[in-house]
Amino acid sequence: MPIIIQKYGGTSVGTPERILNVAQRVLDTQRAGNSVVCVVSAMSGVTDGLIKLSKQVSQKPSDREMDVLLSTGEQTTIALTAMAINSLGGKAISLTGAQAGILTDGLHTKAKIANISPRQIRKHLEEGFICIVAGFQGQTLQGQITTLGRGGSDLTAIAIAAAVRADNCEIYTDVEGIYTCDPRIVPDARKIDTIAYDELLEMASSGSKVMQSRSVEFAKKFGVPFEVRSSFNTNRGTTVKEETPGLENVVVRGISVERNQAKVTITNVPDRPGAASRIFSTLSDAGVVIDVIVQNVSLSGTTDISFTMNKDELEKMDSVLSTVVREIGAGEMVKKDGIAKLSVVGIGMRSHSGVAAKLFEALGNGGINIQMISTSEIKIAVIIDEDKIAEAANLAHTAFGLAG
Amino acid sequence: MPIIIQKYGGTSVGTPERILNVAQRVLDTQRAGNSVVCVVSAMSGVTDGLIKLSKQVSQKPSDREMDVLLSTGEQTTIALTAMAINSLGGKAISLTGAQAGILTDGLHTKAKIANISPRQIRKHLEEGFICIVAGFQGQTLQGQITTLGRGGSDLTAIAIAAAVRADNCEIYTDVEGIYTCDPRIVPDARKIDTIAYDELLEMASSGSKVMQSRSVEFAKKFGVPFEVRSSFNTNRGTTVKEETPGLENVVVRGISVERNQAKVTITNVPDRPGAASRIFSTLSDAGVVIDVIVQNVSLSGTTDISFTMNKDELEKMDSVLSTVVREIGAGEMVKKDGIAKLSVVGIGMRSHSGVAAKLFEALGNGGINIQMISTSEIKIAVIIDEDKIAEAANLAHTAFGLAG
Fold this sequence. Notes:
Chain A is an alpha/beta fold. Chain A is 35% helix and 27% strand.
C-alpha cells in the first residue's frame, strides 16, 4: 500500500473546526487506499503564548526548559487530531517525537535529526492506524526532549518520508504552492507545477518563504520529493524534486522579491589581506545576517565594499562595525535603506546565456536603475529602489514569459 | 543530605507570579541544606481548557489520547517552574513522568503506579539540581503516556518519597492543614498537628476532601509520612503518619460533614438470598456511588433497606433501580434529599466506649433527629436533616472538646 506523509502547519490546525477539517482530509487519503502519516504543528498562537509565559518567569530561560515547554504545543495537536479522526470513524494514534523514533543531537531549540527509527510508525501503519506525529520535536539518546527550530515540522515530515520510503510527502500550507512570483506583486503570476530543489532554495533565500531552506536542503540530501499545496482546497500544488532534463528546458523558473533591505558601503577599505575579513567576521560574530556582497577590483590601493541586509539589522550592524571601520583605516560607512532585491531563478540558466542581458534590458526599458548585481549559477539578483520593485517584478515576469 | 519532596497543586502554580513564589520556596528549602524534589500539577484552569478542546473535536475521546493531551498541562508547569528557579539563581531541571522513571500499568486516565526507578532523580540530586517532576503522569513499559486520575499529583509525590526514601514529604495546598472540622461550619475548629492514616481516610471518605483517599492509602501502604500545609505561608501543617500509642490517647480526632446527600428506602424487600445483592450490584454496574447502607433485622419475611448517596446520583439511581424493585417483588422506593452526614472520627474510639452515646446525647439535647446510623471501627456517622448540619457539627465539636 502506498505511504503518504502529510504535514499541516499551525494555521491549518488553528481551531477545533480546522482540526476536524484536517482529520477528514487525512481520513479521505487513507480511504483512497493509502497508509498515512500526518505530521502536525502547534495550533497557531500556542507557541507564542508559551513563549510569553516563559518570559514572565525568566528573563533568559534555558534552552533545555524551552524545549520541554514548547514541545507541549505539538503534543496537544497530535492528541486532538487523533481524537478528531477517531470521532469521524477512523483509526488514528498519536505519537510524540520520541514515540515516533525521532532521535536528535542535544542542541536544544535547534537540534538536528540524527536518526529516525520508524519501527513504531511502520507497526502502527501495518495495524491500519493513521499515525499522527508531533512535528518540530525529537529526543536525544539520553531521553532529553529537543526541538528542531524554525520550520522544524516540515523537517519532521521530510525526514519521516525518507525513513519510511514514502511514496509522497505533502506539505500543506495556506498558499496554493510555489508561484512564478508573489501574486500580490505580479497579478498574472502562475503556480509552478514542478521545481528543482536548488531552484526552491534560491527562491527561498530570496524572500519566497514558503519553506525554510533547511528542510529543502534535507529533502535534497536524502532525495525526498515533496509537494507544497493548500490545506483549504484539493488543488494540486507544486512538486519539488531532483532536477531532470525536462526541468532544465525552462530557463527561468520564477522571480522572487525581497523588500525592506538596506545597503551599506564602506569606502576606501585598504586593499590588504584581512581588511575585508575583519569586517565580515565582526558581523558574523554579532549575528548580523548579510546577503549580497559586492567588491570591485581595486585599482588605487583601496576599494569600496558594499553589502546588503534586512533593514532591521542596520542598527546592530552600525553598533558593531563603526569601530572596526576606524581600526582598519577605511574611509566612511554610507548607509541607505529603502531598497529591495529582485532575483531571477532557474536551473536552465546554466546552459543558456543571455539571461542577465534580458533582465537588464527589461529593467532599463522601464527606467529602473540597478544599484548592485549579484549572480550565482542559477540566479541573478539585482538591488533596486524599493518603490520600483513591483514595476520591476512585472517587467521581468513578462520579459521571461512566466505568465500562464 | 536530607531529601524533601514538595508537591504544589494547580492553584499554587496558577499564575507566573505564583510559580515564582513556589520557585522561591523550593529554593529556600534547598538553601536550608536539603535535596529537593518538587512535584507540580497543571496550572489551574489548564486541564479544564484542554478537556474543553477535546470535546470540540470528539464526543468521546479515547482514554489514550486524553492522556497524551492532559499530560501537556503538567509538562508546561515543570518547564516554567524550572525556568523560574533558574532565574532566581538556583539550579533546577524538569522531568516528565517518564523521565522521572514513573512506570505505570496501561489503564489510561486512571493508571496505577507499577514501579518507580529513581535513578535519574538521584543522579540529578547528587549533581545539586532541584528536580521538578510532572505530577499526575507516567509511562508504560511500552512508552505510552499515562495519567493517574484524580489526585494523581499527590500520588506522584508520595510514590517518589517512598522510592527515594525521602526524609519529608510536604503536600502544599490552599488550606492550612487538616482541621478538627470545616472552619466555615465550626468557627472554633482547630488545625490538627498529627493524624493517623486511617483517621484521615475516614475523614476523607466523609467529605474532608483535602486529599484523595487513594494517595493516603498509598502512603499508608508504603509507610510514607507526609505533611499537608499551605503554600501561602510558612506555618506548620498537619502531619499524617502511622498510628502511635500517643495518637491513640485522643478519642475523637475530628468531625467531618457531607452535605447534598440523598436517602432512598426500598420497602418490603423479600428476605431471601440475592434480593439485596441484586439491588447493589445493579447500582454498582451503573456506576452509582452509594455510601451508608442500613438494613434492619427482618421479623416479618420482608425488610426495609435504606442507603444514601450524593444528591446528584439520585436520578441515575432511579433510572436503573425502578425495574429491579418490581422484579424482586419489593414494595416501593421512597426518595428523600435535603439530608447530610456527620461523621466523628478517631482511632482512640477502638479502646474507648461511650463515643456513640456522647454523640447521640449531644444531638438529642439540641433537638436534632438522627435518621440513620452507621459505624466503623474508628468512625460513627449519622444522617440528619441538612438544615441542622451546622448546629450538629458545633454541638459535637464542643461535646468532644475539640476546640483549641
